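Help! Submission page says 'invalid entity' but I think these are all valid:
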Amino acid sequence: MDKFVIIGNGVAAAGCIEGIRSTGNKGKITVISAEKHGVYCRPLISYYLEDKTDTERMKYRDDGFYEENNCDVIYAEAVKIDKKNSSVILDNGETVPYSKLCVAAGSSPFIPSFDGIETVEKKFSFMTLDDALTLKKELSSDKDVLIIGAGLIGLKCAEGIYGKVRSITVCDLADRILSSILDEDCAKIMQSHLESRGIKIMTGDSAVRFEGKKAVMKSGKTVEFDILVIAVGVRPNTSLIKDIGGNVNRGIAVGSNCETSVENIYAAGDCTECTDISDGKSKVIAIMPNAYIQGFTAGVNMAGGNAEFDNAVPMNSIGFFGLHAMTAGSYGGSMYEEKSEGRIKRLFTENDRLTGFMLIGYTERAGIYTSLIREKTPLSSLDFDALRNVADFTSFPAESRRHSFGGEV
Amino acid sequence: MRRVYVNEEWCLGCHLCEYNCAFANSGLKDMADALRGKPIFPRIHIEGNEKVSYAVSCRHCTDPICVKSCIAGAISKSDGVVKIDKNKCVGCMTCVLVCPYGALALNEDGVMQKCELCTQNSDGEPACVRGCPNKAIVFEER
């Protein structure tokens, strides 16, 4: 009988479980969960702070999920893979044997070594449900908050605590906010939107030293705060594979079947890196759709099926106070732009393909653009001059449109 | 599995399907009460130009990418119908970012909505199909 073991209990693990069972394989599944919770929707932790959801609704799957899928969950940390004996060694001393293993270990917040950080009493990462639960208890209208890092995590945290604290300051060493997904012009639009709500933003600047409730910045300015949130970035948890000599770059290297370079070991989610179809480069694409699809793909293959995930694209849909930004792909080649007050659309094309986009405001039916990137649709096969202006199917050839809406897809 | 299909050569672009959809999902008994003087948020929309028009609603894909992408675990597929749990949705719009057909949009409360083939309202069968004057939208096996 197969013995499937999954290290990690996030969305990639859920995908893996569902992938294994989708093949009809009834082998034993053991999930090793470092967090003391069933699978939950990690990106919703900011919505939890905002009271837009709660711990019950944040569950990714119903309470019966593990039982229905006949999974054992061990709440412990995997410390080592014993390749020779095909087993996983846990921090509680237990040894779990596997016939196929999936490493879905996620990522960890990166904490730079700031001078005097030990003098800060209230400091948090913003990555796990437990982080959110602890942070929420600290929030009150007489607290000032400093968030280091104006990326997706730091700014979602800012939105989540907005209105529950006295002031929010967000700083980032980069010259703009959301630098991983937006260029300078687009970032400016979002920055003014956030500033219009009273959030203080300091770009090109970060803390270099802490003295209790005071941060001394690189610029020489000082910021007083009660609560510090460190959200400068995350690192894929790759050590389990690295330690046994598997291929690891920034993330664990996997092929389109989600197999690692080590026999019988697969990997999925934020701990991996895979090929971005929009520019052909191998990178960590730490987004939830990727985690689920990689997990599912790994699961099917672990169970003896045949699945491939070969069109990964980085993409994000992120809104702040009602203004939505959607981005996908990479931003090389030539650019098409549309702009109006507080809204912008930038599409990037190269070699007859759409390779990426940044949309703020203009987000209606954006998936039509995403699909062009994922499917590598030749732009010459449709009326792209019309499509770039309005995302709908009038610009598609009649035959493909009739298939889309008159056929099974 | 029956689905909603479009015969674009028969579509008049009259937008009646949009009104019938909004009415069917309003929970109200009287169409005028449901729609008069209000902005409507139907789960089907007409696209078109001078040459062609057709209705767009959820395709209930065989392998729906919205289900795999939803960051709130709010979209699922059962009995062939892709459904949204409005209670779990936080309105992040990741489904809009991935749907290749542009079939999802926010409702008046900032929560996503999509065609659920009228399985969740009292109609039981797609209201857009029943009200289409030219049989440009049909509900059938293909």
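Support: the input was valid. A stray whitespace character was the problem, and the output above is from the cleaned input. The longest strand of chain B covers residues 3-6.
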